[in-house]
Amino acid sequence: MVRDEIFAGIDIGSSAVRVAVGQRLPVGDKESVHIIGAAEVAAEGINRGLINSIDDAVSSVASCIEKVEKMTGAQVGSAWVAISGANVVSIESKGVVAVSRPDGDVREDDVERAVDAAQTVAMPVNFEILHVIPKTFTVDGQPGIKDPVGMTGLRLEVDAQIIQGMSSHIKNLHKCVHRTGVNIENLVLGVLANAEVVTTPRQKELGVAVVNIGGATTNLVVFEQGDILHLASLPIGSDHITSDIAIGLRTSIDIAEKVKLNHARALPKDLAKRDEINLRELGADGDESVSLKYIAQIVQARLEEILERVDKELKKINRSGLLPAGVVVTGGGAKIPGIIDLAKLKLRLPVTLGYPIGVTSITDRVNDLSYTTAIGLVQWGMNESRDAAGRKDGLLGKNRQVEKVTQQLKKWFGALVH
Prior knowledge:
alpha/beta, Dna Ligase, domain 1, Nucleotidyltransferase, domain 5, six-stranded mixed sheet, 10 helices
């Protein structure tokens, strides 16, 4: 594996396009991600995670890539790209195969055949498979097996999570990124990329929810026993908070966005009625004093709605208030002060902010919650590359063993002839 290999993640969101670039960093006998550059530009031609103008979207993505290339001095030739929104669905599937070896030893190719069998599910004609994630295996009726390789049996079953995306959305994303001259290594569900860097394996084992509050959508994934338990995309995000502020203060969207970024609070109880700001300082035409407590009340109402919808999703799987590792909140909307206390109150669970774990960087943007998806894509790409290299090494090892046996047989036949 090339240590200085570049991994890039592109997060095409409704409000911004973000690109992160990283490299492998050896830490003892392990490797971690080292982010060498990250950039963002305002998103054009994108609405609720869907591309509605290819030319505008291409311009935004190309501008962001150019920005990060100047920052790092490295060319982005390929990247892992996030996909999200209501056009991504998840179903469970089962694959069953007979173990191929006469002695009943389960091999990697048996596992691959079982996973392939799980993909033969009835799909709508306008959807494509994005991820096939094996959850547990069953060998001859023994369930709950995480890794069946090396076990003995006649029948191998797999329970898998199939994540599908709408074909038109996938094609538009491919078209958008390819036009910038960058190849797509893989499309990755955005909230899974988030979870890759903001949670630990132990949290996923105990039971944890990752909530990514984006601009137009809030995406949720719940893990338990290391597997995906539930996925959801809610059509509500931090842009709705901006709209609420604009309506409540009777001001423009641009000024409302500045109010949200600089003065929003999730809980109004700590603010006094006399605490005010003048909208002229944020670009308004005339003097207009506004109560910070009133702004916080507007923000609180919308955040409560988002959190109530998250709790509703948890109720669907009987996990409301019942996740031992709690909730990890990330995304741009998670930067509003006081959101943790409000989330603890509404979800009745431990809540933390989702900063990247074990990631180093030369830029402070690694600690910006808006970048967790892009950084997660870099981690995903690094893991995928390492797994592919491992499979290649295994194949080479098998080929070398075959070559040794072949050479030995040639020697024996040569000896018999002479």
